[in-house]
Amino acid sequence: MPLRKWKPIFDAKAQELYPATDPSHDILHIRRVVKTALELADKEGADINVVLPAAYFHDFVNVPKNDPRRKEASRLSADAAVEYLKSVDYPAEYLPAIHHAIAAHSFSANIPAETLEAKVVQDADRLDGLGAVGIARTFTTGALMGSVSYYHETDMMAENRDLDDKRHTVDHFFVKLFRTAETLHTDAAKAEGQRRVAFMRGYLEQLKQEAA
Asked: What is the CATH number of the domain that holds 170?
């Protein structure tokens, strides 16, 4: 079936799944990932029949980052997404690839992305953690998880201390986010990741000046 038929069906289901209580993982996050994934798929030649549903449902099961089941979240999402897709008669030949793309998208699951479609979905999701939106999502997540400050008062850039992103949200830029750009697979994602990281480093320089 054509994209124009499935996209509104998936979007309606996504609106049911993703709550407004966490802006870092809400429906807007999903729509951005879908948009980016489709753009990457077009540039890289990936199959949108796999990419579209995998992007929409990569977080089908919401497990908080501090939950001990977090490492299982992507597998649980993959299982649930496939069951949903079966219920709406999505073509069965795409389901194994969709399952893999969803299961492999997560950092914590540590599942290698073995197909181009899985790489595209993983890249799209990771790009959403970078740039202007990535900054906003980082501070939202820090607040929800109880960080005690935006930044370390006397050593923001951790030049003379150990990083601790559970206490200082800015530390997460160095603990994870800047490293994210180094894990991107596709050429198109790598180029965009570099642009977004450059923006984030500029933001940190401005923040450092304002906080001095």
From this structure: 1.20.58.1910
Residue 13 within any structural domain of the chain? yes
| Full residue range of the structural domain in which residue 10 is found | 1-115
How many domains are there within the chain? 2
Whether pTM > 0.85 for this model: the answer is: yes
Q: Are residues 141 and 199 in the same domain?
A: yes
* The pLDDT of residue 70 is above 80: no
The answer on 175 and 134 residing in a single domain is yes
**Cα 93 to Cα 205: distance, rounded to the nearest angstrom:** 49
**Average pLDDT for 115-142:** 96
Tokens of 76: 């649980």
pLDDT band at 68 (very low <50, low <70, confident <90, very high): low
Do 3 and 75 share a domain, yes or no?
yes
Q: State the SS3 of the chain.
A: CCHHHHHHHHHHHHHHHCCCCCHHHCHHHHHHHHHHHHHHHHHHCCCHHHHHHHHHCCCCCCCCCCCCCHHHHHHHHHHHHHHHHHHCCCCHHHHHHHHHHHHCCCCCCCCCCCCHHHHHHHHHHHHCCCHHHHHHHHHHHHHHCCCCECCCCCCCCCCCCCCCCCCECCHHHHHHHHHHHHHCCCHHHHHHHHHHHHHHHHHHHHHHHHHC
